[in-house]
Prior knowledge:
This protein has 96 residues and is an all-alpha fold. It has helices spanning 2-26, 33-54, 62-83, 90-93.
Amino acid sequence: MKILKFLQTLLFLTGLLKPLIELIEAVEQPGHGAEKKKAVLDLMKESIVAAEKAVPGLDLDQDMIVAFLDKAIDMVVNLKNLIGGFRKTPAADTAG
């Protein structure tokens, strides 16, 4: 039974990645990183609660999922910053 719970959680976590990235991109703007991260986490928490209500018998470890999402947000933002995936402010683009 533990393997089924593990696989269920793994599938759920991978399914959260695309909406997580979309939310990160939706709140993209310079500055206010902590507030943006909190907003994305709050929306994702609401998604978890909705999924548990929609799927009878779905038993998710919310603390583990939120911890995963917290780290995933950091990784996505760091990667986008590294590869220039976020838009620059107009002042930064007009230097020179």
